[in-house]
Amino acid sequence: MVPGHAVSQEPSACYREEDPCSNPRVESTIGEVITRRAALKTTAAALAGTLISRGANAKEASPKSKSPPQGGPSTLTFQELQHGYDRRASVAAGYDFQVLLGWGEPLFADAPNFDSRQQTSTRQSQQFGYNCDFIAFLPLPSGERNAQRGLLCVNHEYTDTNLMFPGITDASALAALPKELVDVELAAHGHSVVEIQRRHNHWHIVRSSPFNRRITALATEMSVSGPAAGHPRLQTSTDPTGRHVIGTLNNCAGGVTPWGTMLICEENFNNYFSGDPDKTPEARNHKRYGITGTSRFSPAWAKHYSRFNINREPHEPNRFGWVVEFDPHDPDSVPIKRTALGRIKHEGAGIVVNHDGRVVIYCGDDERFEYVYKFVTEGRYQPGNHAANRNLLDNGTLFAARFDEDGTVKWLPLVFGTGPLTAKHGFHSQADVVLEVRRAADLRGATPMDRPEDVEVSPMTGHAFVILTNNDRRGPEQTDQANPRPVNEHGHILELIPPASGNEADHAADVFRWEVFLRAGNPDKPEDGASYHAKVSQNGWFSSPDNGAFDNQGRLWLTTDSDHHVTGFGDGIYACDTTGPGRALPKLFFRGPRGSEVSGVCLTPDNETLFVSVQHPGEEEGSDFQKPSTRWPDFKTSLPPRPSVVAITRRGGGVIGT
Ligand code: FEO
Ligand code: CA
Ligand code: CA
């Protein structure tokens, strides 16, 4: 808790910066005080002889990095914005943005209008949720590439109690939160599906659409499938079957399957539980997932709901941390927690159909020193065969990544009965492996990374880009070539290169190559150790990349989740080529208002609209419902500020980026 700021919700985006590292493999050094000065000296030493400023040559910066080409222009010809930190959102010249959806937006014809002082769980369940994150646009009719009409599917990751309700200005008010307000928060979590249409370069919500839906943490029933379904460690007093869960929590990023379903990923589920983990039969498990027993939200959650009290329901946390699949075209479909993909702090799901028809899903586990994973289905995707594809994600092999100094990635299978994943180490079935997949990956020797967030696969090259947001606790002696900087405040992006099979990438292969795509940070500060294309501008550099999306030309659109105290400016969207003369040359396209994180970037199939989530505008130290400093004047004027989805189009129409 920040002194003088009694509400325990520090401005920290979806990730609590104070969250300890949970990986025992690095515990011995993580507790040591790493002074910034010492680390910077080490950075300078570690990267000695390499150019680490604007004009850097990545080959010199890292033996595994491809040389960024010198002097070539970006294919992104828009006039880039300037860095800044103010109360307005801004977009590059020649573009317009509209605030399409905001917290409380009615999603149904009979849904009540938003009134921030009269919010109830019933109203919230019919309205757009809080803190929007991942966005997908699914054209309508289903299966077509129509970019004028579609379903916008949006995650609602978490809530900010102090920004949502008046009077929550200290810890005692937070602790005394009445059940109805806890219910509003539960109903503000989850996901929204809403039909939208484009008319005259403007997007409209279709409230009467039969597809519109809210999925919430309050009331949406979900089933569990895969190796852990029905396992005793998933059973609770209200669900002795271990197969039926109420709701989904902390849905961060996600993905869209080739068969048209949504994958929404449960990330920081550890933040929701109260109690003493050491007094549960799951103490080791809870500790490995950072479940300390102190709720990030309010102890009132556990007071009103025993399922959030781990001493009452020690298995409840085992029912979160999964990838959830649902069919947005069927508003009655029951979301399914696909346990074969493992239980981690799932950031997102980077999906690709392999050359042989198997489906490969890349996942990051967003915590300091956690791992990168991939899941390879056993069955093959069959276009148009719904029955064959429906449960593809229940059978397959989960792997964790080990990045070797020789520039290869070894994918380590996490399969019960193989290697150390046996009863000797407490694994009695594949259910135990997927439930405690972090510990399985520890034993396998996966490489602890600098907070792996999104993994995105280029539609042009088939290379997978792993976005590592930062890791300010990596010690000088803990660096390796894939995580080359101690006290990595700015993050970096790795490019994973699958071997070729004929003319196509083999994403199911056991060994890939890897390279550093870029190292974020200020290229004018040698101590940052940044590395971009030589021509990155004063405004093109960034810190803490988080989400990404490729456009049709293979250009990567990145969003940031940084700390303006570190950078001096707010979060935004940066676009860069991943091949050709403009490789690794980012340009600033959009900037969110102060206090916000920009996430969930998504393009329509024609690339003429770019949707982005503006999460938690106004979330700053000491901010609350009443403070005018939290207002976002670009949006509707009412208090409090409303997390929103923004639609960006080119004035007069045309492809985004020029
Ligand atoms: Fe929810 Fe890792 O961002
Ligand atoms: Ca994220
Ligand atoms: Ca993040």
Tags for this entry?
single chain, binds calcium ion, 13 helices, 658 residues, 6-stranded mixed beta sheet, disordered N terminus, binds MU-OXO-diiron, 9-stranded antiparallel beta sheet, 33 strands, alpha+beta, globular
Summarize the SSE layout with pairings.
Elements: H1 27-30, H2 36-46, H3 58-61, E1 90-91, E2 95-102, H4 121-124, E3 132-139, E4 149-156, H5 161-164, H6 171-175, H7 179-188, E5 190-199, E6 202-205, E7 213-215, E8 221-225, E9 244-246, E10 251-256, E11 262-266, H8 283-288, H9 299-304, E12 323-326, E13 336-338, E14 350-353, E15 358-364, E16 368-370, E17 372-380, H10 386-389, E18 396-403, E19 408-413, H11 430-435, H12 437-444, E20 449-450, E21 452-457, E22 464-468, E23 492-497, E24 500-501, E25 504-505, E26 511-519, E27 545-550, E28 556-560, H13 564-567, E29 572-576, E30 587-591, E31 597-603, E32 609-615, E33 644-650
Parallel strand pairs: 8-13
Antiparallel strand pairs: 1-30, 2-33, 3-4, 4-5, 5-6, 5-7, 8-9, 10-11, 11-12, 12-13, 14-15, 15-17, 16-20, 17-18, 18-19, 19-26, 21-22, 22-23, 23-26, 24-25, 27-28, 28-29, 29-30, 31-32, 32-33
Bound molecules: MU-OXO-diiron and calcium ion (CA) (2 copies).
One calcium ion binds at residues 13-15, 453, 469, 546, 561.
